[in-house]
Design a protein that fits this description.
By secondary structure, this protein is an alpha/beta fold. The chain folds into three domains: about 5-110, Nucleotidyltransferase, domain 5 (2-Layer Sandwich); about 125-185; about 190-330, no CATH class. The protein contains 13 helices and nine strands. The strands form three sheets. Strands 3-2-1-4-5 form a five-stranded mixed β-sheet. α2 links the parallel β4 (about 50-55) and β5 (about 75-80). It is globular, with a radius of gyration of 24 Å.
Length: about 325
């Protein structure tokens, strides 16, 4: 079926229901479906044999059931950033915002842009993604417990029962964190994943935890079309707000994507500033040109992300001599 006859189905997902909108025979069809596996599957199967492409926003766990059904039934679908649908609504000059309007906007977004179909992770990657989500939550809890215990140290005769309770919970949380970190690491028989980890670790400054996390979440990075797309997904691409000569907003990074991954890359950048000649040269050059330390460090994070994509995409370990030679040619 040609691209012109494809039906783009917009689905606005909430905790209890899906609000659907898509064109049919010159009119808009709008409906609601309960957010349960059985109801979603019955609705999808009842849509007919037309070539369909489903568009939904990234809404965390609420959209997992819809994604699961669409993936299992082999339908094409794209998961878009909420910022994209908001921008589309502004382009359409919409004055109302409700679930039906959001579903309508998502359908039009799909028909207007060439959205990349979502690639379903395999079962192992799915479990590791869930492990990473749990790990991130527990690490926040660990920090809170450590802060509470630190505050207790300054109390006069603090409650022994309360202190013991906090220490017991902290010990349990730290044990769970260690188990989840092991879950992210490739198994002995997972040769491809272990190879990818070694490629990423060939970049000086990038440690085992960061490499394991990136491989667990993104595999061979084939879901990204370019290094630019990878950096943009991580929220490390620059954002500019300016117009003419009167509007000069501050240039920053977008900070989209997972903040935990940026934290890992931040730690990598701090290490790379000392041990990676390419990153060290970049940092010192930016400082010399008047950039502050935060801006220079962010540039190093951006560089490391591109290097990671490069070694994985080329299936070649990082070669500092080649990278430095290429840098001289560019300059």
């Amino acid at each position: 079926m040609s691209e012109g006859t494809k039906i783009y189905v917009g689905a606005d997902v909430s905790k209890d229901e899906l609000v659907i909108a898509h064109p049919s025979a010159g009119q808009w069809v709008k409906s609601k479906v309960a957010n349960t596996l059985l109801d979603i599957e019955a609705w999808v199967k009842g849509l007919g044999n037309e070539d369909k492409h489903f568009i939904l926003e990234a809404t965390g766990s609420y959209s997992h059931r819809l994604v699961h059904v669409l993936g299992r039934l082999g339908h094409k679908f794209s998961v878009v950033n909420p910022g994209q649908s908001r921008a589309m609504a502004q382009v359409l000059a919409k004055t109302n915002k409700n679930d039906e309007q959001d579903a309508h906007t998502l359908s039009l977004l799909g028909s207007s842009l060439k959205l990349r179909p979502h690639k379903m992770p395999d079962e192992t990657q799915k479990k590791r993604t869930e492990a990473f989500s749990a790990l991130t939550s527990l690490q926040k809890q660990e920090k809170q417990l450590l802060n509470q215990l630190h505050a207790f140290e300054y109390r006069v005769e603090p409650s022994a029962v309360a202190t013991k309770a906090l220490n017991n919970v902290l010990e349990s949380v730290q044990q769970a964190i260690a188990e989840l970190e092991k879950e992210l690491a490739p198994r002995v028989n997972e040769e491809k994943e272990r190879h990818l980890v070694q490629l990423i670790r060939s970049i000086k400054g990038v440690g085992e935890k960061t490499a394991n996390t990136l491989v667990a979440l993104f595999g061979d990075l084939s879901i990204f079309s370019s290094a630019k797309a990878f950096v943009k997904f991580l929220g490390l691409s620059p954002s500019e707000y300016s117009s003419g000569s009167s509007v000069r907003g501050k240039r920053t990074i977008t900070k989209r994507g997972n903040s935990k991954i940026r934290t890992l890359l931040f730690n990598c950048a701090r290490s790379a500033m000392q041990h990676n000649a390419l990153c060290k040269e970049l940092y010192q050059r930016l400082i010399k040109n008047g950039k502050n330390g935060k801006v220079a460090l962010t540039a190093v994070m951006h560089k490391i992300a591109r290097l990671i994509f490069g070694v994985v995409h080329s299936d070649t370990p990082f070669d500092p001599k080649f990278a430095q030679k290429k840098q001289k040619v560019v300059n």
